[in-house]
Design brief:
- By secondary structure, this protein is α/β, with parallel strands linked by helices.
- The chain is built from eleven helices and 17 strands.
- Helix 1 packs across helix 2.
- The radius of gyration is 29 Å and the shape is globular.
- Bound molecules: nicotinamide-adenine-dinucleotide.
- The site of nicotinamide-adenine-dinucleotide (NAD) has 18 residues, from helix 3.
């Protein structure tokens, strides 16, 4: 009797009373539907894979749908492999990949150090799209802010630390990695203390304010046998990766020249980004670094010479201590020249174009968190073909964190280890020297390709 009541409840839920149903459908169909629902109830399933269902159209007509059959999904046992659902789109259409996040207890636990713009606006939300990483601890100088953030992201109160008791992270077994998201001058200290606490370190760019600090960070992580990665998100981003592949395969012939710009208007002269002791410099280490690092990434080569100009508008309070603009040329062993500019006093512009023998490849914008756009143009006989390839958008921060987590889980060298950050710092020091002295500065010739990087990740 109870089963019958349940069946009626199901029918009512579908908008059909008992009498109405029997009159409308006839006993034969009703018996079939009731029979199949009864079978579903008996087996304790909330839905069956082969049964009719009834629904009401917008004009009130009751419709019995034909029996449906969904083949069972293929569920791989391996945690990192996605569930394979029934195919329904033709091969010609773009597919969405079913994510395959690892179970929570198998992910790498992160402590986020510094709860400013990048952490709150980008990194913490990005954990929601991570497959191998989770946030388990916070470090901040503001207990009130930290408590709120801890509640927002489900971090335990006992896993919230101040800068003073930061070293106690050592005792927290849930934390395997520390992500340093502090003003640039603090990266070295918190990396070194974090490694000494036995944790792997993911550190924001620029790595530090001097090559000496970068080296000390590398040494501390080596000594503690911990991994160190610099968060160069662009090196894990699919559009930039595609351009790199086109450059490396000489798709449009040999690359000869690259132009790159990263510029934005800054405000607030009081902000740490305008204080040299905290930021290390102005536009160059903050945003110009994207031009430098991305050109090196695309070419997989290291510059042998730089020549730079630097300028700050006199009387502008923002640029009392740090530079407003740097413009520099880089010469590479293969004969490629790059012309890069960065500015803190013009409206946002972030783009580059790679010029090759038979065409060019451009990202405009090239460096934002979202909305990167590619355009390519090449000559095919008399035809000039211009294309705007569109790749599926990924969360750059989730991809980057998951790469680091994979390196920890599989004991691999990160693609952008500390040595990659140190090399950028050497080049930035040469750029400032050239601007000061008004002449080119030579850099040691490095023959090996991707000399400072780990193995290329399988996917961007
Ligand atoms: P922010 O100023 O918004 O945050 C910095 C945090 O550090 C704040 O919570 C601040 O309270 C804290 N802090 C601790 N000690 C401080 C001190 N002595 N002075 C000032 N602040 C102090 O900065 P942000 O934009 O989040 O940048 C943080 C780091 O992340 C920088 O190294 C920056 O270069 C890098 N970053 C990287 C990207 C990227 O796309 N990869 C984007 C933005 C910033």
């Amino acid at each position: 009797m109870k089963k019958m009541d349940h069946l009626l409840a199901v029918l009512q839920d579908r908008g059909l009373g008992r009498q109405e149903f029997l009159q409308w459908a006839g006993r034969g169909i009703a018996a079939g539907v009731v029979g199949s629902l009864a079978a579903s109830c008996r087996s304790g399933q909330s839905s069956t894979r082969s049964q009719s269902s009834i629904y009401t159209t917008s004009d009130g007509t009751k419709v019995v749908s034909s029996p449906w059959e969904t083949p069972p999904a293929k569920v791989p046992e391996k945690p990192g492999e996605p569930i394979q659902l029934e195919e329904w789109k033709a091969k010609t259409e773009r597919e969405t990949e079913t994510p395959a996040p690892l179970p929570d207890d198998q992910r790498v636990g992160y402590a986020i150090v510094g709860l400013g713009h990048l952490s709150l606006d980008e990194l913490l939300p990005a954990f929601g799209q991570c497959k191998k990483s989770k946030v388990v601890a916070l470090v901040s100088g503001s207990p009130e802010k930290m408590q709120k953030v801890a509640k927002q992201y489900g971090v335990k109160t006992e896993s919230c630390y101040s800068y003073q008791n930061y070293d106690q992270l050592k005792e927290n077994k849930e934390v395997q990695a520390i992500y340093i998201v502090l003003p640039n001058s603090m990266h070295a200290e918190y990396t070194i203390r974090g490694a000494q606490a036995g944790k792997h370190i993911l550190c924001e760019k620029p790595m530090a304010n001097s090559a000496a600090d970068c080296q000390a960070m590398i040494d501390a992580c080596k000594k503690a046998d911990r991994k160190l990665m610099i968060a160069y998100r662009i090196q894990y981003e699919p559009n930039n990766r595609m351009i790199r592949e086109m450059v490396q395969s000489k798709k449009y012939g040999a690359v000869k020249f690259i132009e790159a710009v990263n510029a934005q208007n800054s405000a607030n002269p009081q902000h740490w980004r305008h204080v040299k002791a905290l930021a290390g410099g102005g536009a160059l280490p903050d945003i110009g670094l994207y031009c430098l690092n991305t050109v090196r990434y695309l070419l997989a080569e290291e510059p042998t010479e730089v020549f730079a100009y630097q300028y700050s508008t006199p009387g502008d309070a923002r640029f009392r201590d740090v530079e407003e603009m740097v413009s520099w040329q880089m010469k590479f062993p293969s004969g490629v020249y790059a012309s890069c500019s960065t500015h803190y006093g013009v409206h946002e512009s972030r783009r580059y174009r790679v010029h090759a023998e038979r065409g060019w490849m451009e990202l405009a914008p090239a460096f934002p968190y979202k909305g990167i756009q590619m355009q390519t143009s090449y000559a095919e006989g008399e035809i000039e073909r211009t294309e705007q390839p569109k790749l599926p958008e990924t969360n750059q921060f989730a991809t980057e964190m998951d790469h680091f987590s994979e390196c920890i889980m599989q004991n691999k060298q990160p693609f952008t280890p500390g040595e990659e950050g140190l090399q950028d710092q050497h080049i930035m020091e040469a750029i400032y020297q050239s601007a000061r002295e008004g002449k080119p500065v030579k850099l040691p010739e490095i023959k090996k390709k991707d000399a400072f990087r780990g193995p290329l990740p399988k996917e961007a």
